[in-house]
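User: I'm new to structure prediction. If I give you an amino acid sequence, what do you actually give back? Let's try with this one:
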Amino acid sequence: MDVTLIVLSAGNSIRFNYPVKKQWIRIKNKPLWQFVADKFNKVYNFKKTIITANEKDVKLYEKISKYQIIKGDKERQLSLKNALEYVNTEYVMVTDVARPCVRDEIILKLINSIKENDCIVPYIKPVDTIVYENKTLNREKAKLIQTPQLSKTSTLKKALNTDKLFTDERGAIEAIGGKIAYIQGSEEAKKITYFKDLNLPCLKPPLKITLTGNGYDTHAFEKSKKMVLGGVEIDVDYGFKAHSDGDVVIHSLIDALLGAAGFGDIGEFFPDSESTYKNISSTLLLKEILNTLTYTGYEIINADITIIAQKPKLSNYKTKIQQNLSTLLGAPINIKATTNEKMGFIGRGEGVAVISTTNLTYKDWYEDYHSRK
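Assistant: Good question. You get back a string of structure tokens that encode the predicted 3D arrangement of the chain. For your 373 residues, that looks like this:
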């Protein structure tokens, strides 16, 4: 059958209460959203795979994924409706990134059981007594619903053509009188809501590897402008010709950090065509990048920076720059300064160039989880 897979991954991960968003924790070397999509595609040859992402993360997902990435929404159902606009197969399977350990046989059983139904749903039976509005319910007739769920695309689109919000596809299809069928789910398909929920068998610790990136930037001098290098003001009567404050050290450092993470370059995050960044402090730009690296699961190991300048003389500033950047990054920073032996535009005293190298690694959520137990 032609089936499209939708992985819903646009949540804010607020209840997870961890510096890394849950969709970005690394399973070996893959973020959780990529791990889930790859896992499903190993089991079945889906016609297309669509992943919803938080608006801020769409471009980051696209940097490292072969799948179609679309902007999600604040509500699960609205994210699903966005994704369904790109679905043209007869059937669609919808799963949540927070439920990563779905067994292979569940995925196949859903596909093999669709028959004349509008929606196929996995469930498990409750083992505890259920009380609703102070009345005991018959737990033998109760079902705890899971994902993924497989639906007829046309029926699901019709069911979601409403302002009423449903917690899953089954509820929406049931509301319009669609035919629902159930299969036995699995205890392994537990949903990750809180950090303590990471005790799942399929979640392997992140690889202990070093990711290296380099950055290069250069700016010409401009009269009567404040000079800032590495977030430190330099006592001269000229600065840098640039859209922002022209802090060439931080610009180079940002490119190195983004390079190590595989996230592109500074211009993609802060284009000089946008007035928002006119004369902005580069320290603010660096803080935004550091926040992005944190919630996407990276830790900074160290950075090495070489400033190439005939002027100004930086011997009295190297330590200040090093201390400032080390504090910002929370990691060891080495600052070197050299001249260009009076060669080229740098040697003529027309500008400064900077080369940066950074090393990152994955945030070890696995170790943090076991240390909390």
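You can read the tokens as a compact description of the fold. Here is one thing that stands out. The longest strand covers residues 211-223.
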